[in-house]
Structures are given as C-alpha cells and as structure tokens.
Amino acid sequence: MLIRYKKSFEKIAMGLLSFMPAEKDLKQLQHTIKQYEGSDEWQLFLWKFEEDIIGAIGVIFRDEQTVEVQHITVNPSHRHQGIGKTMVNAVKNLYKNKTVVPNEDTESFFEKCSEQSSDDDC
C-alpha cells in the first residue's frame, strides 16, 4: 500500500533512500529528505506491506502534465518480488491524468520492467 511520507517516517525513509547510488553521501541524503519535506513539487511515498515499510518512491512535478520518478528503492530483502513495479504502477494510478516518466537515475529500472513479462525481476 502506497502511503505519503511524513516526518515520523524520516529514519526509515532515509534508510531506504540510502540504497540509491546517488544518495550514499549523508549530506546529500539529508538534503534530499529536506526537499521532500519542504517542497510541494517533491512528493515521497512509502510502500507498506503488512506492518513493514519496505520501499520508497519519490516524484517531482515537472509541470502540470508531467510527474518524474526521482527515486525508487526497495529493501534488499524484498527485492525481485515485483514491489518496485507495483510502486510505479500505484504512482501512475494516483496521477492517472498526468504522464509519469523516469529521470536518468530511474530510467534503467523503467526500461527493465517494461521489457519483463514477469514482475519477478522488477
């Protein structure tokens, strides 16, 4: 289930985002979280499965018609189960009147998932 980020989820969100190569540096990670907390154009969602938060997907509103997926990450112990692709589809459904596109960091994930006939690898 896709849930909106709130400050009480800061530690888990930072932990999940730290799996992204561009977010390895602590200062960069703190800056990213502040962007999600302080800007209406940046929205972070967490993926809750049962009682655990196991994934995160962050978007930026580029214009009135375009939502760009900036971050997408899944806890390593839950990868290759289709969770990432499910999160992307949930965002597409949430913003069904807009075009959801990847950025350069998430583009290869989008391509991999569109090529796969099974959710198991995405």
UniProtKB/TrEMBL annotation:
Alphabetically ordered keywords of this record: Acyltransferase, Transferase
Gene3D superfamilies cross-referenced by the UniProt entry: 3.40.630.30
GO molecular function: acyltransferase activity, transferring groups other than amino-acyl groups
Domain N-acetyltransferase, residue spans: 3-122
SUPFAM superfamilies per UniProt: Acyl-CoA N-acyltransferases (Nat)
Keyword match Hydrolase: no
Pfam families the UniProt entry points to: Acetyltransf_1
PANTHER family per the UniProt record, alphabetical: PEPTIDYL-LYSINE N-ACETYLTRANSFERASE YJAB (PTHR43800:SF1)
Protein name: Reductase
The organism of origin for this protein: Bacillus weihaiensis
Lineage: Bacteria, Bacillati, Bacillota, Bacilli, Bacillales
